[in-house]
Design goal:
single chain; 11 helices; 20 strands; alpha/beta; Peroxisomal Thiolase, Chain A, domain 1
């Protein structure tokens, strides 16, 4: 549905209404006259399956619907004692599908991308929310990493689209003085770069104050494959810096082995499972090893950790892994958002971390452990600071998006149609 959008200053532009399914009966469009809208970054059109994808910010959702309006207000950042997370934002699509979970994996429903959404649009929306939450001036963000295994292009970074849309860095002749890359390591493509982001802001010749890291995926699975009943869609973005830090990054432990548990060859549309390599020799070995080692090198025990956030291919795996390390149910539960949104692949553990930060208090310690097939994990230990309380009202909590009364459910055929359109 398209129309003319009027702004407060009198400007009028043509725009498209997104995230709206018109009723089957005749629609009285006059009821939309004067209705408030919010701009959204979405796909405009594509030149077939092999041509360019065109994006636009002249897409709009209704302001009284799923997404609340947020004003981007830049604030002065306080000096911090350590380096770490300055702000974060999570974007979950409005549409959902109920899961017929007969496997005991604990995924009740999942997020579904609208027909004009993809990994790049998720990244822009999550990055926008991270800027709003942090209050950081976008000109001071000099690096952007986008981790994904469902990028719109095989050769062309989503990162450049994000930088242009969010105006990261100083503007110059239509471009911006900022850099970055798209990264790939299955579901830990983003979290692997958390330590790089912190190292950069601590490096004198970097020349920037902040680095943005985004985990974003339109998680892929073949139609009617068992995996297709656990995958979701969405993104989480984190800003790292040395001023205005809400959670310091205190410890980092990576663990990697050549384990082909899950893969997709060049030219293949959907990933495949590695059979006997799945489960124990892959997820559990790497996640448990990384968590135990992080506790050992930090000198901490499970009781010293307030929250645990793990990569969640389902609700069962992270729970069992955390219990094996010695954690209790109440330490794990807040991060198990997979039950309500599905497996977000590269966005999975970042979204779990965001859900935990939504409720964390100053001095709480958080252990986040990612997992990426192929295979590897890294564990991070964060300590929450008092700054988190000053910025909390500027965020849209994960729980609010999960429980939002405006979310809409679609059937399986619609889900597959939209999923295919956005790949």
């Amino acid at each position: 549905m398209a129309g003319i959008i009027s702004f407060d200053d009198g400007t009028r532009v043509p725009g498209k209404i997104t995230d709206y399914i018109p009723p089957k009966e005749e629609l009285d469009v006059t009821r939309f006259v004067g209705k408030g809208v919010i701009p959204r970054f979405r796909r405009l059109y594509t030149d077939g399956s092999q041509g360019l994808i065109y994006y636009s910010s002249l897409n709009f959702s209704f302001e009284d619907d799923y997404y609340p309006y947020q004003e981007y207000v830049k604030i002065s950042q306080n000096t911090s004692e350590g380096h770490g997370i300055v702000g974060y934002g999570v974007y979950l699509p409005k549409f959902r599908i109920k899961s017929e979970d007969e496997s005991g994996l604990g995924v009740g429903e999942r997020t579904v991308p609208f027909v004009d959404e993809d990994t790049a649009t998720f990244s822009v929306e999550a990055g926008k929310r991270a800027l709003i939450h942090s209050g950081v001036d976008c000109r001071y963000v000099k690096k952007c990493f986008v981790g994904s295994e469902s990028s719109p292009y095989a050769v062309k970074p989503s990162m450049s689209t994000v930088c242009q849309a969010l105006q990261l860095g100083e503007e110059y002749e239509g471009g911006f003085f900022s850099g970055g890359i798209d990264s790939q390591f299955a579901c830990k493509a983003a979290t692997d770069l958390f330590i790089d982001a912190v190292a950069l802001v601590a490096y004198p010749t970097f020349g920037g104050e902040y680095v943005m890291v985004i985990g974003s995926d339109n998680s892929q699975a073949e139609r009617n494959d068992p995996l297709d009943f656990t995958v979701g869609a969405g993104a989480a973005a984190f800003l790292f810096g040395k001023r205005g830090v809400i959670a310091t990054l205190d410890h980092y432990v990576p663990y990697t082995s050549d384990t082909p548990d899950f893969y997709r060859r060049e030219g293949q549309k959907y990933p495949r499972h590695g059979g006997r390599f799945t489960g124990e020799p892959a997820y559990f070995k790497h996640v448990v090893t990384a968590m135990k080692t992080a506790l050992k090198v930090s000198g901490l025990s499970p009781k010293d950790i307030r929250f645990v956030a793990c990569h969640s291919p389902n609700a069962r795996y992270p729970y069992l892994a955390a219990l094996e390390v010695g954690f209790e149910k109440e330490q794990i539960e807040h991060g198990l958002v997979v039950k309500y949104i599905g497996n977000l692949y590269s966005g999975s553990s970042p979204t779990s971390l965001a859900a935990v930060l939504d409720v964390a208090e100053p001095c709480d310690r958080i252990l986040m452990t990612s997992y990426g097939s192929g295979a590897g994990s890294e564990s991070y230990i964060f300590t929450v600071t008092k700054e988190i309380e000053k910025k909390r009202e500027r965020s849209i909590p994960v729980k609010l998006q999960i429980e939002n009364s405006h979310k809409e459910y679609v059937d399986y055929n619609t889900y597959r149609e939209w999923k295919e359109a956005s790949l």
